[in-house]
Amino acid sequence: MSDIEDIHPIVEDILSSLTFRQKSVIANMNEENLDYLQYAFDRYISKKAPDDEDKRREIMKLLWEVCKKSHRIRSV
Fold first, then answer.
1. Between the CA of residue 41 and those of 26, 37, 48, what are the distances in Å?
2. CA 22 distance to own-chain centroid
3. Are 48 and 10 in contact (CB under 8 A)?
4. I want to staple 55 with a disulfide (CB 3.0 to 4.6 A). Which of 20, 49, 50, 51 is the partner?
5. Angle at 39 (CA atoms; ends 4, 43), nearest 5 degrees
6. Do residues 63 and 15 make contact, with C-beta atoms less than 8 angstroms apart?
7. DSSP H or E run through 64
8. Cα separation of 22 and 19, whole Å?
9. Residue stretches of the chain with pLDDT short of 70
10. 47-62 pLDDT, tens per residue?
11. Nearest-angstrom CA–CA distance, 76 and 73
């Protein structure tokens, strides 16, 4: 199983525990601001990917990308 396939279940697990508002906040963040959110998620993600900082960053980035596709606030 490749790394990307390995992190999808983790991302889905995290998404299932987030509220709509939390997903929207993540979706509307700039990529540069993900570092601020990374620390909070590291505590949760570290249980799923211990001692693997690169993998935790991949998880955070994929989480952000998924939220951008489904929860981005747009002008109508």
1. 12, 6, 11
2. 11
3. yes
4. 49
5. 75
6. yes
7. helix 53-71
8. 5
9. 1-5, 48-49, 73-76
10. 766 778 888 889 889 9
11. 9
Tell me the one-letter amino acid at 15: L
CB atoms within 10 A of CB 11: 21
Domain regions of the chain by residue span:
3-71
Cβ atoms of 58 and 3 closer than 8 Å = yes
Which pairs count as long-range contacts for 47-55, CB under 8 Å and 24+ apart, including other chains?
48/10, 48/13, 49/7, 49/10, 55/3, 55/7
Amino acid at 31: E
With contact defined as beta carbons under 8 Å apart, do 73 and 24 qualify? yes
DSSP per-residue letters across 22-54: HHHHHHTS-GGGHHHHHHHHHHHHHHHSTT-HH
